[in-house]
Amino acid sequence: MPISNDRAAAGFSLAGRVAVVTGAAGLLGREHCRALADAGATVVATDLDEAACADLEQQMKQEGRLAVRALAADITDAASLTRLRDAILRTEDRLDVLVNNAALNERVEAPDGAVADTRFETFPVERFRQMLEVNVTGTFLACQILGAEMSRRRTGSIINIASTYGHVAPDQRIYRRPDGSQTFWKSAGYPASKGAVLAFTRFLATYWADRGVRVNSLSPGGVGHAGQDPQFVEAYSNRTPLGRMSQPNEYRGAIVFLASDASSYMTGSDLTVDGGWTAW
């Protein structure tokens, strides 16, 4: 007997659950919030910039997503995350899903003269440390403070946003100009930090397995957006089996899958959604 659409969809429902998304004001953060809200969750969207949070909440409500609440927090500050947790528990009395999306990442659209900033030989160690602080320590603290509430309740799903560059080295060739010159290199900071996120995900998945908390990661590929250098977009697309960059909304299904009971037997794993980039 075939399973009804309603029964199949029930496994992906997040009705009655509370989800936190860090880095929520960013390009993918907004999409993660939309996906979780559309699946029925009450979403707490957090970002460092208080004005950006207010703008995000207003935008979501204008779109009809009324169960999205935005609160500013600094993921590298334990006290700030503790205040965020307490604010959530005062109003929602539970925490079911955590999406660790906040991260620092250099963009190809760097200003001229970026050679000295992104070449490994001259990359500032202060920037390297800052990327580790946000991408790794921030993820650690969010899990320690917010995830501990899930552990206490013996249920929850944590999704750490990693990257294809946590699995494979950056292909520096895609940043070259047609004349062979190059003014941008992907630095060591981003892949090093995302590789650490993958390892931390496996650690926490096994550590909290007996507490009913599942911990997985999502590794997105390159995301297309307005203002990108057309030459870079073409080079990236040519390097990808599907022949294009992703659209920002193409990770919604993966987020809902990992957050919901549809992935109930999945922990310590990485879901790579990259158009085939890591297959080559």
Unreliable sequence segments? none
Largest sheet report: 7 strands, parallel
CATH architecture: 3-Layer(aba) Sandwich
Write down the overall geometry. globular
User: What CATH first level would be assigned?
Assistant: Alpha Beta
Structure explained in plain terms:
This protein is of the alpha/beta class. The protein has one domain (15-275): Rossmann fold (3-Layer(aba) Sandwich). Helices cover 41% and strands 14% of the residues. The chain is built from nine helices and seven strands, in the order H-E-H-E-H-E-H-E-H-H-E-H-E-H-H-E. The chain has helices spanning 5-10, 27-38, 50-62, 78-91, 115-118, 125-153, 189-207, 230-238, 252-259, and strands at residues 18-22, 42-47, 68-72, 97-100, 156-161, 213-220, 270-273. The protein has a seven-stranded parallel sheet, sandwiched between helices. Helix 2 (27-38) links the parallel strand 1 (18-22) and strand 2 (42-47). The longest helix has 29 residues, at 125-153. The protein is globular. The chain starts with a helix and ends in a 7-residue tail after the last strand.
